[in-house]
Description:
Chain A is mostly helical. Chain A has helices at about 10-20, 30-45, 80-95, 100-115, 130-140, and strands spanning about 50-55, 60-65.
Amino acid sequence: ESLSTPSNTPETTRGMVQDPTQFDVLVMPNLYGDILSDLCAGLIGGLGVTPSGNIGANGVAIFESVHGTAPDIAGLDLANPTALLLSGVMMLRHMGLHDHAHKIQKACFDTIREKKVLTKDLGGNSKCSEFTADICRRVQDLD
Amino acid sequence: MESLGGPKWWQQASRSVSISASLSRVESPPARADATFKVTMLPGDGVGPELMTAVKDVFKAGDVPVEFDEFHLSEVQNMASEDKLEELLSSMKNNKVAIKGKIHTPMEFKGELASYEMRLRRKLDLFANVVHVNSLPGYSTRHNNLDLVIIREQTEGEYSSLEHESVPGVIECLKIITRAKSRRIAKFAFDYATKKGRNKVTAVHKANIMKLGDGLFLQCCAEVAQLYPKIKYENIIIDNCCMQLVQNPYQFDVLVMPNLYGNIIDNLAAGLVGGAGVVPGESYSAEYAVFETGARHPFAQAVGRNIANPTAMLLSAANMLRHLNLEYHSHMVSDAVKRVIKQGKVRTGDLGGYATSDEFTQAVIANLAV
């Protein structure tokens, strides 16, 4: 039993830090969303692994990763593609391509779970291309 | 800063000592003081009254020389009126120090945009809210050994209670940021950091979006920072700040921010060390000090069930005793609370235990080194 059901944003913030499993879907205005989405990204590993989508009317949508441009590692094959890849998965779902979305998401999660080819930000030593190649291999195996 | 110092001379006037002694600055008092300090008490709603009982019981057992002037002001219990507010204010003006629970703000709009809680803050000009985020020894959380101070401007900003519906279905809400109040809170933060020997002050804002409002706040913080060359000054955007707090809170020391962000960060930080039941807080004006919990939540679901955690209120009461220069009694209370938590045998539900509020309070009393 949740003794302290949050009834406003500050309490929700506290609840999110203490026991995020009490929440499922949250809807909120602009500023709170900005704050809470970053907070929750922090809880799951940061902006490098957090996907997002912007949905408009008539099916118009833009899916994007919300991390920075990381100029210090640009062009060095070191970046973690997870955030953008999972945003792509969201996009496939939006388009109704659920099978493809499921396969790619599973492959991505399995690669991360195995911990053999992780990029530096996830604690590994592999390159972006190696991480990606592993996911591609799994996707092909799943076919 | 005067409001952080010891008791004012007019508090000394209530002591039965000679005139010359009352006019001079008080030296460390003996373990048993000659007379009592008068403190205003406002139990508030929800579990407030239960927590106040815990404070009174512990003070009585520890022979603490404090006398409480109790007031009951509540919007939800229909005990709110202008007269009551005035009575409370005049008691505050006499005593200068208060301890309080939260006055619950009903969600429905009853014709007055500012809640009693806000109006009290404004009338007493309690502009600075300070929340101490300290990990409790013996109670493990994801991040241990935390020691943060969160300073929040709490009289303007998003809580200015200025809203209007210019067109049906379209509400405009005004967020007010003034140079005077921003400088005031920034100066408070740096003075606080100086007095407590802290190294860094970080301003939290969203000036990339609210360029004029938060931009002004940020500018004021930067200006005041220049007067304190020994203290490092940084700034961080509110969303990134929340993320950093859950990933690596150790990078922060003292944080200063406007109203809404302060409310959010107070609660977030309370969650990091164990929840609303363990974090003490206080509010200051130039003349008054009000001691309360850090995360202000009436916790209505717990009323009468004897399950609320008295830790936050007891630690805040201990801070109040330090403010009154009753160092010995302050340590006595806070040490007892920390000892009970460290032992881990008597813990309330929010910390994973099964004890009632009363059992916890009794355990604290048993641990008072009288």
